[in-house]
Structures are given as C-alpha cells and as structure tokens.
Automatic annotation (TrEMBL):
Homology family: Belongs to the peptidase S26 family.
Keywords: Hydrolase, Membrane, Protease, Transmembrane, Transmembrane helix
Species for this entry: Xylophilus rhododendri
Boundaries of every Peptidase S26 domain copy: 102-313
NCBIfam families linked: sigpep_I_bact (TIGR02227)
Organism taxonomic ancestry: Bacteria, Pseudomonadati, Pseudomonadota, Betaproteobacteria, Burkholderiales
Protein name: Signal peptidase I
Amino acid sequence: MQILTTAILAAFVAYAGAWYFGMLEGNFALLLLLATVVTGCYWLAERFIFLPRRRRAAETLAASAIARREELRRMGIAQVDGSDDADLAQARGRILAQPWWLDWTAGLFPVIVIVFVLRSFLFEPFKIPSGSMIPTLLVGDLILVNKFTYGIRLPVLNTKITEGTPPARGDVMVFRYPPQPSVDYIKRVVGVPGDEVAYLNKRLTINGQPVPTQPTSDFFDEDAMRYFKQFDEQLGTHKHRVLNDDERPAYVPGASDFEFRSNCRYTVEGVTCKVPDGYYFMMGDNRDNSLDSRFWGFVPDKNIIGKAFMIWMNFTNLKRIGRFD
C-alpha cells in the first residue's frame, strides 16, 4: 500500500505541477473530484479494515502482557517493574498510530469532502483577473459565486439536476467561456432568451426600450491612470455603474464566427442581436474594454457556473468587502 499511495500522490503532484507551469490545461473540478474519491476509498479502508486490524494487534499485545504477568506470578514474582506499563503503552500507541500513507489520504478525506461539497453545490470562490467588470469589480477582488440559485449542477459534467431560478437581466454571472470552456468568464446578463439586444452608439436597448442611464462623476482608473465616463444604469432590478471610453469607436471590431451569428447585425454604430432560446447575451460593465458576447456570441445554459454576489476579500482594499449588485 505504501508503494501504491506514493504513486498516487506523485501523480497528483505531477498533474498540479504541470498545470502550474502551463504544460497542460488543468481542471480543478476534476482534480477535486478524484481527490475526494481516492481519499474516500482510503477512509473507508481505514475505518473497516486497517484500524480494526491495528486494534486487534494492540489487543493481542495487551493479552500477551497480561499472560506474561500471570506467568510471573505463578513463578512467585509478585512485583513487576513499573516500566513495563510505560513500555506497553508506548507499544500500543505505535501500533494504533496511522502510518504516513493513511495520514495523507484517509486523514485528509473529511476536509476534502467538505471543500468538494461546498465548492460543487453551494459556493465557489473566484479571483477577478481583468478589468472588464470595472467599476463593479476590480482586478484582485476575490468573489463568491452562488452555485444553486440557477439550479444545482453535477461537478465536472455540469449537468443540471435542479431547475432553480433562471438568470435575470442585470445578474452578474460566472460561466464557461464558449470558445474555450476550460476558461471561466464573468460578465453581466444583458439579454435573456427571446430578447433583442442592441448596443448602438454606446447606448443599450432591449426589445426596443432604452435601458435607463444617468451620468455620474467620472471614474479614475488607477491602472490606466486616466478618467472614464461613468453612468448609473438600471438593468432589470439591478442598479449598477458602467464605464464608457470616448476614445474607442462604437462599432465592434473582429467579431468571430460564433454559433447563431446570423442572429446578429453589425454596423458602424454597433451590434443588434436576437438571443436564441437557451442562450444569454453577456456584457462587461467596462463597456469599451470588455471581450464579451458582442465579439464571441451567446452563452448556452449548459455553460453557466453560478451567480456572483459578494466580494469576500481584497487584500489591497478591505473596504471593498461586501455584496454588490
């Protein structure tokens, strides 16, 4: 078992190392599932096989010590050196102790299974890697994503097993990037199935109705070291802020040949799209600095991960901790 365990742990380390150094495209959900299954098997084996075996060995040792003392008494030796008790306790402790290969497998199972359940079915943490959601989310924000609001999904397969509440306009959603599903993206839901979404001359219209916006104070981007126009926007029940960059054109350059591209019309003014059934149109709040549905198309329901709702940490600005809209 030691050799087998060493090989298993070495495989996990090799996979994680290759992923870290960019030698392969890792899948944390799959890695966590495998870790849960493997440590769970060791935990069951420890509880029903290895631990009872060690206990029987300890009981045999204790019985042998008792038999030895009885034999000494029959020989007329009434007093036994007290060190025998200490030696016996140490020997029993060594027998009952978990070997290292069980400590690093069965011993970790309770922690790993809790993490697996929390991350797969309740909440998953993410780190904001880019500025596409500024000013709502900043680079370095650590956020929590609700995994059950839109329906619980099986880990790895992402198959929905409960319906939940459908995504609504204005929700901030994490999803698998359609051109590369191994990559997670975060954007705001702008169009739901059946909507006609138009973003023309940097104004958002849904089903022919302009989305209410109100100019507010300019936003200073510390990374870009410049100011951007900022607006309060009311999208569904969500009131949030968006940015516009006057130096960027209104048209959408370099849109890819995505599924249902025929549902979209591109002009010098921008883009108009009809959202197909089972799909969503996503945009970043940093409207002129966001690679979103205008460029790569619609997000299918099967790609949804969950609803982002809270910043749980930002190490450079603790005031950002809290819920967001």
